[in-house]
Amino acid sequence: MIKKERIFGLDLLRAIAILSVVFSHTFEFLLPLKSIPFVGFLVENFFKFTQPLGALGVELFFVLSGFLIGTILIKTFVESPQFSVSDIRVFLIRRWFRTLPNYWLILTVDILLYALLSIGSVESYKFLFYIFAQNLWYPHPPFFFGEAWSLAVEEWFYLLLPFSIYIPYLVFKPVNKQRFLFKILVAFITVFVLLRFFNAFHPINGPDQDAGIRKVVFLRLDALAYGVMIAYFVYFKRPVINRIRKQLFAIGIIGTICIYYLISNEGLAVCNTDNPTLKFFSDAFLYLILPINFSLLLPYANSIASISNASFKNVIQFVSRISYSIYLVHYSLVYIPFFYQMKIENPLLLFFVYISYWTIVLLLSFLLYRYFENPLMKKRDKYAIQK
């Protein structure tokens, strides 16, 4: 198989996404430095700056994943003489070799480590995580592997979208695959937009937007579909997209700044507000606006194959390559058990420990990628090949 060249623009977005998530989850560690003149001002303001970044980083991950797997799935669907379960099987096996072994390994280590450190016991609900059933239509468990909610959204999307294409294709046998695929994607997105809209009137999980909407699988399955839609337009309408990709990128950047401001200053994402209009708008439409906005960044990013600054490119590609491993290990495996409860008064020591945390996360993620994730990915075609 021909090795695909990495696309720097997409690597850069992925690196920004994972760094945003990690800073959002862990920069609180440096808050004791607030008492130091000037340094405290910088720390406190950077902490405030990082807080919305976790939610935004995950949404960026969603559209990136949708774009990448959408590109593969669309190409498979269009170029296959008869789109079949065998095509879906190859797609899923290749995807699952990339995501499941790493996830299952870290999940198992988390369960055993928490029991060993008496942070938690081996409760039965934790086994739902193995099949991504911990947050299907109900809130994600609050005190264990909190970052896994987004992985559940992604895995169910990978499973459901191909069959959402295949079953109608089998029934209607469309002649025009391009038009058929567009209708399927619009219908898929519409279903979940309407679910959130009706849920805004009668919340099934209570008023807490973060737990009751943002992190619930069947209220978020369209999160990746906007990336797939961009992949559709890039595949079928490339000349048009190439002409407007810079304008789309500019709109996406401006939109990101506006959304960041609203989340930071108006409580749009957390929505602990007495304003019923703002609450309804946020519950019903925020998770439509966020992925659409980030998806506008993709066409231009996808056009930046490389850059001349080799050192910067190598750093970004390194972070991008190990981003999945970073996501898995940075919080529940490393930060919560070993750093969260630390009480350090010496400012220099505190800063040194935080740098040590980042070193451990990056090193552990690299080792996980180099000796576990990557070797398994190299074997996936052996098992995915159609007999």
UniProtKB/TrEMBL annotation:
Domain of life of the source: Bacteria
CC terms in the record's Gene Ontology section: membrane
Gene Ontology biological process terms, A to Z: polysaccharide biosynthetic process
Record's keyword annotation contains Transferase: yes
InterPro entries with a match to the protein in the record: Acyl_transf_3_dom (IPR002656), Acyltransferase_3 (IPR050879)
Entry keyword set: Acyltransferase, Membrane, Transferase, Transmembrane, Transmembrane helix
Ranges annotated as spanning the membrane: 12-33, 53-74, 103-122, 156-172, 184-204, 216-236, 248-264, 284-301, 322-342, 348-372
Limits of the Acyltransferase domain: 9-369
Pfam families: Acyl_transf_3
GO molecular function: acyltransferase activity, transferring groups other than amino-acyl groups
This protein's name: Acyltransferase
Lineage of source species: Bacteria, Pseudomonadati, Bacteroidota, Chitinophagia, Chitinophagales
